[in-house]
Write a structure and sequence with these properties.
The structure is a single chain. The chain is α/β, with parallel strands linked by helices. The chain has one domain. Helices cover 39% and strands 15% of the residues. Helix 1 packs antiparallel against helix 2.
Length: 264
């Protein structure tokens, strides 16, 4: 699967001199991130706020603008989102002080992986979604009052409509009676593009390399992202498959209602 649609027209790129300015600003921001990492172990619950500031500043420097609809998840809740790119964690992490559920490899990402480790991310090895280990760790986090955000597709997807949600990941919310809030993330295509769905350069799928994908996004003038926090579903008294499908349908409805182009 290709990371970029073969039919995608070239989007607006930054002029070379603006790329230099962005590179210098990002270099300074990465240095600030290294300094933040020194204090994160001592920050306690404030670590999430520090990471959120770094994420927000990173998005701003990359020219990524967010449109927010709805109210983010409360504490002691399970947020479930469609999964398009590595950017999802940064976008949602800038908006929600949450413990994410990610594959173990995310912990090895530069800076973002370290932030994730210090802000309570639950790392699961491949195949752990099929065991009781995932459920136990998610239940512990929500019992402590944390908001937990996961991607129930368990993989990235370039299509606008998310693929099947894995019902077993909803078991901790059902067992603990925690609300489940669907979250729809839509990366709008360029205003002058004939593309529909997500921006063709954003999906990070297949064998796409992280560094190469980052450099592609770095060259873009900017991106616009719509994040819709849907109405939460009560977790108690539900079956896993039904709750997973209801959450998926809510995200599909929000994505279909999301604007297909950025505002002029």
């Amino acid at each position: 699967m290709s990371a970029i649609s073969s039919n995608a027209a070239a989007p607006p790129y930054l002029a070379p001199w603006r790329r230099i300015l962005r590179a210098v600003a990002l270099f300074g921001h990465f240095l600030a991130g290294l300094l933040i990492l020194l204090v994160l172990p001592l920050a306690g619950r404030r670590a999430g706020r520090l990471a959120a500031w770094w994420y927000r500043r990173f998005l701003r420097l990359m020219g990524i603008r967010l449109r927010i609809n709805g109210i983010p998840p409360a504490t002691g809740a399970l947020g479930v989102a469609n999964h398009v790119s590595w950017l999802d964690i940064i976008v949602l992490g800038s908006l929600v002080d949450a413990a994410f559920v990610s594959k173990t490899e995310v912990g090895d990402w530069p800076l973002v992986g370290r932030f994730a480790r210090h802000t309570g991310t639950v790392f699961l090895p491949r195949g752990a979604y099929r065991t009781g280990e995932a459920g136990e760790r998610l239940h512990e986090a929500m019992a402590e009052g944390r908001c937990v955000v996961l991607f129930p597709e368990a993989t990235t997807n370039a299509d606008l409509a998310p693929s099947r949600f894995h019902g077993r990941l909803f078991a901790p919310a059902i067992d603990g009676g925690y609300p489940v809030q669907p979250i729809a993330v839509h990366y709008l295509p360029p205003a002058d593009s004939t593309e529909t769905g997500h921006h063709p350069y954003v999906p990070w799928v297949g064998d796409a390399d992280l560094v190469s994908h980052f450099l592609t996004l770095f060259r873009l003038e900017g991106l616009e992202v719509t994040v819709t926090f849907c109405e939460p579903h009560p977790g108690d008294g539900r079956d896993r498959r039904g709750l997973a499908e209801d959450s998926r349908r809510a995200i599909v409805a929000a994505l279909e209602g999301s604007p297909e182009k950025p505002a002029a």
